[in-house]
From TrEMBL:
Keywords: ATP-binding, Nucleotide-binding. Residues 506-526 are annotated as: Disordered. Residues 17-247, 263-509 form the ABC transporter domain. One of its GO terms (molecular function) is ATP binding. It comes from Lichenibacterium minor. This is ABC transporter ATP-binding protein. Belongs to the ABC transporter superfamily. Pfam families: ABC_tran. PANTHER family: CARBOHYDRATE TRANSPORT ATP-BINDING PROTEIN MG119-RELATED, GUANOSINE IMPORT ATP-BINDING PROTEIN NUPO. InterPro entries: AAA+_ATPase, ABC_carbohydrate_import_ATPase, ABC_transporter-like_ATP-bd, ABC_transporter-like_CS, P-loop_NTPase.
Amino acid sequence: MASLPGSPSVRTPAPLVAIRGLSKSFGPVHANRNIDLDVLAGENHALLGENGAGKSTLVKMLYGLLQPSAGEILWQGRPVVLGSPEAARALGIGMVFQHFSLFENLTVSENIALVLPPERQSRLDARIGGLSERYGLKLEPARPVWSLSAGERQRIEIARVLLQDPKLMILDEPTSVLTPQESESLFAILDRLKAEGRALLYISHRLDDVRRLCDRATVLRAGRVVGTCDPRAETARSMAAQMVGAQIAEVSSRGGAVGAERFAADDLSLPAPGLHATALRGIHLSVRGGEVLGIAGVAGNGQDELFAALSGERLASDAGAIRIDGRPAGRDGITARRRRGAAFVPEERNGHAAVPGFALSDNLVLSRHATGEVSRGGFLRGAAARAIAREVVETFDVRAGAPDPAARTLSGGNLQKFVVGREILREPGVLVINQPTWGVDALAGAAIHQAILDLAGRGSAVVVISQDLDELFRLCDRLCVIHDGTLSPATATAETDRDDVGLRMAGTVPSPPAGTEVASAPVHAH
């Protein structure tokens, strides 16, 4: 719009970073097509899209990990070539990754030092300590990364970007493993950085977080920009519909009858498996056929140790400490438990749930071989395994670029759908699933949630371990909280709220005495 004669011109601020016609192809696959995007200084800008929409490819080009096939990037008005992450960081671009870029055998401090100019270790440790105290990130510089939970690893990623004093921060699913209280702490940090004039490019499938935090949103679909919006003027459902091009169906329970106890732990105690791990103390839980039991907790309070004990990756000292359909299983390993109808989905999909370099069919065999499934030629393999993998892909809408691709070629959400589908299509009597929708989009998350509820509706007992309270309240009949290796009694979901559960997660509110089970009858209110 032209200015009136004699009136001062109203200028749109020049963007900190401008993307013009950016495209990226991998052979015949077009990950990004002719992307235009501006991010202003002092702006929180969301980048939205379903899994496989091209978000990660785009930000990897901004961070110098990938080179564009066409188009250009302008930094403060001038064209730049970002040939490496070092070049991006030198300009003032920092990135927090969804999948952690950390070396397992190095310490927290050593991992942070890799992306910073050389300095004395004592000085860096002091800076990390100051950052931890200032922002509440709770980092111990001397701890090795292999001993840390997913939430603690996320804190390293955030801290090492903040120590670079960035002008633009790219965050890829930063709250996916955080509690509501931790997320609010992160938002407070990001609000402070915005007030300092820094820019944020924010990728998240938690659309309520986007509405809370972001000024503008750009929506990608199939590698193209399909629109922009003001998140504060939208609902989570309307933004999700823009992402997928259709309305997302509400998740609903079939409300099947609740049966007998199918899975239980009685006085399950295990020492900490490592110096910085968490011991389990007197764990009691009981799950009946047809119900979903949720376990909430802050990262690092024993979730991984509990999953390992429930799955048989770690054995109990007493066979009766774990029961499957009434029979002792505490001394059975994971293979024996699978043969008795149990299935398990760990938190880390790359490396734990799936071997990245293996084809999907080979990954299927890794968990299905224990169940006694056979093909015409003997144990499950070859064409039979590929046929079942194809069934998982089709049933769970796994977006794969080849008939039987390597697991590493799938986006995070699509690999998660495959891993969950691989277990659910077995029709297990018991399912234990850790962080079921970590880093997946709204459409994939709804599909996983519906599959879990449908499985319970067919009479299976389901245990969901999650740090996402929205997810737990959506799925679960009853909720427990794990804190410092101790599990609270179960409470009917309809008889508690987020604030109470969040406080229990932080250890602020003491749990009722052990053995005082609260509202043990499930309430089907999904």
